[in-house]
What we know:
Layout: E1 26-27, E2 30-31, E3 44-47, E4 50-53, H1 66-95, H2 101-106, H3 113-124, H4 127-140, H5 143-169, H6 176-184, H7 186-219, H8 223-232, H9 235-269, H10 279-289, H11 322-340, H12 343-351, H13 354-385, H14 392-396, H15 400-409, H16 411-449, H17 455-483, H18 487-498, H19 502-507, H20 516-539, H21 553-556, H22 559-583, H23 614-643, H24 660-688, H25 690-701, H26 705-708, H27 710-720, H28 739-744
Antiparallel strand pairs: 1-2, 3-4
Amino acid sequence: QTRDPTHLGQLPFQEPTEAKMSGACYANEWLGVPAGQPGVKDYYSDVAGVCTKSASFFGGVPVLPESAGYGIVLGFGIFFSIFTTTLVYLDQRYVGTNVSSEFFNTAGRTVKTGLTAAVIVSQWTWAATLLQSSNVAFQYGVSGPFWYAAGATIQVLLFGILAIQVKRYAPTAHTVCEIIDARWGTTAHKVYIYFCLLTNIIVTAMLILGGAATVNALTGMNKAVAGFLIPLGVVSYTMAGGLKATFMASYIHTAIIFIILLTFLILVYVSDSEGVGSPGKVYDALQAVSAKTRDCSYTQLGQSCGPVKDNRGGSYLTMISEGGVIFGIINIVGNFGTVFVDQSYWQSAIAAKPSSSTRGYLLGGLVWFTIPFSLATAMGLATVALDLPVTGDEAGAGLVPPAAAVHFMGKSGAAAITIMLFMAITSTGSSEQIAVSSLFAYDIYRKYINPKATGEQILYVSRCTILAFGIFSGLLSIILEEIGLSLGFVYLMMGIFIGSAVMPISFLLLWDKCNATGACIAPFAGQVLAVITWVSVASNTRDEKMNLGTVNIYTLGQNYPMLAGNVVAIGSSGIICAIISMMNPQNFDFSTMAKKITLIDDKMPDLDPSENDPQMLKDSLTFISRWGIGFSVVMVIIWPLLSLPAGCGASGVECGVFTKEYFTLWVAIAIAWGIVATVVIIILPVYESMDGINLVLKGLFTNDDVHMRLDSIEAKLEKALGLSATEPEGPFVSDDPCYRAKLIARKVKPTVEI
């Protein structure tokens, strides 16, 4: 009557029906765990008279049927396509939005703080945010979630500085490459098109790798098929509504992610779950799992057991972790590239109102922090505390959160984590699609193919690019599957290839002396030096067989080769660019930049004059510089330093290892931050959009069809009075495509002129 370990806790343990039971895993006729072993009984079985832990958590057997995978991937894709397209239609019909090429790629440049923050959270919530963050918690303990969250939050906070500079110096821009062209010319423009597109491809690759692996593990759906269908699910609504549709969908996705996040937090720290349920129980379990006296003979090859290598006291409950710190540095360096060189973040800055750009990025960064920090502190540490039989390969594929979710909730947990992951993938995927479409439409088609392109042509090219990139993303999934790269490998590697573009692109709007030569040479030189360093250090790293001189996926994926490559990429590029620029400073006049970037088929929005007040923009720069840099220093310097003396002077733990009280405070911060972030990111965008929501509701539930027939009435009156022998040809008031919306808002008066 032992439980089949592949059932993963879906069924409750039942009392055996036989009168007497025996075996290595039985104690007092009940299935148990070996004496002195942590964890739960579900994952042990009697093998040849030895109580043995399951070889892996998933064991190649999916929790959900394959049909569930297709249902989630296709069903949610179709649902959100219909739902978001409907929202776009209502926005056009009742609010008066005109989807021109400008609006398609910039969302009208009027997005408010709450929605800007929600979009930033959505764009920055990759598959890796949900999966890789828990993997590093599984590897390094409490330091892993912290360094993932802090190391990837500061980029968003600091990007707010560039966001307000866009509003000051390039308010008519559509892409970052347009700004580069306006400052450094055609050669630099081509260089950064390459780096921007490379960034989009790497981000998309990570989305597909994490998503396909999780859907495959939980449902059995073929990885290549899942990877092909996931990006196609967002093509329809992105093509229909452009950036505004992406923003609307991103808000809904973000709300769902936070609701599921809170559910998992409660399950781990505020419930009666077996083995966990409170910070104290989790603390005791983590101490038991990493105990130096633990017998690891029951554990299978590839599973964690005993003290954590290079952690203070071998504990999961310490910030003094060599692996955690190395990961933190790699994370910081690599993520600068995927924010500063990703067109989607520049596009969000362009779309925001001037007064909302800085506040949106600051709020978005602080809200996003809670996703990897709180989720991984819950799911990653729970996987360790419960001693689930997760292998290193499963963890590397991002399967730590799914394992914990399945343990707690069975099939419901599998469905929840799959939906959560799908929300993250599709929201970021749609942002990447619209970013690539903007680069192709404005920086390739308009710049090099058809300089006199009309708005309709730009719109057509944008939509075709979205479709093409969606198909390309699907094909990319098949290529990645054949190569055999994991999510963790690509995540650590990304900074080596795109980090070299960070410093020059930062100088674009912040340093007038940076010249075109330095901006063109530095990123390529840094990229080449980074790859050489990466490979060189890997060749001096021991492989699986403890041999030196081997360069393969294993050695390239180790901490020190990744660390060296990432640091060289961003550091060497910045130094090279600065030296070349100082030799021949450009001394660029930023006030001339706006005149070099033109609109096509629309005009700048009619905002309150205060929105474009130079002093307001300058004050906003001061605000985001102070708070963005301030929060960054707190997160990556002050907070970690304050955590180092934890446990010093307390009995029973080494200096630097959390006490139970300190860990309880740590968890309380994670829970409180998660609750506040959830409330803010769900309520604020709705509150700020109430005017538009009221217009839509008023239009839906009031009958103003009689006003839409005024032109017909006017024509009949004119004919009856003999003022016109034929039907008048217009123009009429209702020829305005936004007439209905303006009428509802009482911005026009229905009149009949005779």
